[in-house]
Amino acid sequence: MCKNSGVKEICELYKSFVRSDGWLLINSDFDKLHPGSNFLPKWTSMKNDLLEVLKLNVTNIAIKENLKMSHEMDDDSKSVAIIKGIHAFLYSAGMRTDPSGSKEIVKIRSFYEGKGYTFQPVIIGFDYNQANTKRYFLVHFEDNYYRLESFDKALEVLLKTYYIMDLKFPVSSQSIFSFLSAFFLDVQAEISPKVKSLINLLQSKLI
Fold first, then answer.
1. DSSP for 79-125?
2. pLDDT tens across 140-163, in order?
3. In 10 A of CB 199, how many CB atoms?
4. What is the rounded CA–CA span in Å between residue 122 and residue 120?
5. Per-residue pLDDT tens for 4-13?
6. Is residue 92 within 8 Å of 84, Cβ to Cβ?
7. How far does the chain reach from its first CA to its final CA, in angstroms?
8. Which of 44, 64, 191, 192 places its Cα 20 to 30 Å from the Cα of 19?
């Protein structure tokens, strides 16, 4: 684990992280630190239960309607809808997304770095590659990308990247990351009463 360094410093110190297959090292290092963690199978098996909990408890009308339409979505779109639902439950508001993707990332990063903030890793989704055949997702950090074939895999790598690089979660999404860490990564995380409430609702659903 990398202590007390920013993303840029970490990438300079550990060159293997910036390779296109560096996410495999992220996974390997995380599994050594947390051998009992098994995010992807747990998320895959429980996300439909989480979806039902969110349908009943999210108050944001637009998000609730979107969750109700999840049966018409492909797996990636359903997972994105669930993340937006988690955000709506925890923050009682819709989650901002940027349809302009990677082109806007440069502007956003420049804005925050100009104010002295660190631009943390994010997921960028693309509907199709240049051959117009397959969707893919990028975990973006600094000037580097990990390319993953599903949103679920990108989400797993994103979470683990924060832990391995010892980064603070974004303030605007801290409760989401805490919930995913505590329940699906099985990592001890500081959780708010709202996060605890969502965990309790999901656990009740699974009984």
1. HHHHHHHHHHHHHSSPPP--TTTHHHHHHHHHHHHHTT-----EEEE
2. 887 788 899 999 999 999 999 999
3. 15
4. 6
5. 456 667 767 6
6. no
7. 36
8. 44
Instruction: Output the pLDDT for position 143.
Output: 75
User: What pTM value is reported for the model?
Assistant: 0.83
- What span, in angstroms and rounded, lies between the C-alpha atoms of 180 and 198? 11
* Alpha-helical runs (H) found in 17-57: 22-33, 39-57
57 neighbors 201 (Cβ within 8 angstroms): yes
Locate 153 and state its tokens.
Answer: 């895999």
Supply angle C-alpha 127, 183, 81, rounded to 5: 30
- 3-state DSSP percent of the chain in helix, strand and coil, to 5: 60, 10, 30
Work out the percent of the chain whose per-residue pLDDT is above 70. 76
- Please check whether residue 198 is in contact with residue 86, taking contact to mean a CB–CB distance below 8 angstroms: yes
C-beta separation of 78 from 70 below 8 A? yes
3-class secondary-structure state, position 137? strand
* DSSP bridge pairs for 144: 141
> How far apart, in whole angstroms, are the C-alpha atoms of residue 74 and residue 82?
12
